[in-house]
Design goal:
By secondary structure, the chain is α/β, with parallel strands linked by helices. It is 35% helix and 23% strand. 38% of the residues are buried.
Amino acid sequence: MTPLVSIIMPVKNAAAFLPETLESIQRQSMKEWELIAVDDHSSDVSFDILQKASSNDPRIKLIKNEGTGITPALIRGYEQSTGESITRMDADDLMDEKKLERLSEGLTEGIIRTARVRYFRSDGPLGSGYEQYAQWLNNLESTADHLRERFKECVIPSPCWMMRRQDFESIGGFHSESYPEDYDLMFRMLHAGFELQKRKEVLHHWRDHSMRTSRNHPNYADNRFLDMKLKYFVESECSTGAGICLWGAGSKGKSIARGLASAGVEFRWVTSNQKKIGKEISRLHLSGPNTVEQGSKVILAVAAEQDQMEIRRELDDKEVTIFPFC
């Protein structure tokens, strides 16, 4: 019988967490699933753990990554999958026992299903940044919320989404042009125009630990996120005729300004800093807040939350669309 859901799970040196992860998958209330575990040249006993699990449960399929890295592993795993719906799992995380059931419930073409998540840490205290990210992520509800906030952080958690196979293939699947691969997939999901439906339950438990790939690999450095944000912003927001405004002249604002200029985008660069108004940075002129035009699309490159709130209030009567980038 064709499994209802295919779970694609890259694995690299996850032996310390794999038994618990596999148990959380096998404990699912929905039984019609297959797990495609792709070992990415692990140097620990991850492959042995997966081999034993596969021999005891025919729903677990173990293959080796023919390339190197997460994206080739995801592509390889998907090629071996047969499910009607697709989801991804991280080898060090935990599923709520009703995760697959809730995400697949009534799932039809044209829909991306996601849910709330919880961060936890098994080798020390959880950093406040992770808690804040989870809280922000969980507070996003509608498709409009996710579209508005997509340039701030990744609004769809990489191991907590599900969509129909046909839809997944229509956006190129796991074939990502660059890293971070999960952020690239998120942009492609949202820009395809699918409806995003979010379950209010916490269905995924995201494990943070000192060896987590996103903490250590250069593919997840901040500059890569900014390059990707600018690429998709230019593609999706700079061809509609609305004026583009960049607010913020700190280090991130300067990087964004250079990126927009390199892409040939005409924009107004605004700052609240009286010492910078009227100056030029990288041959680009800085103007004051009163120059923001009605109906503009505003890139907000100001990190302090209080400053962001003040800017939003200042722009309240301008009917602008604000896209926070930090």
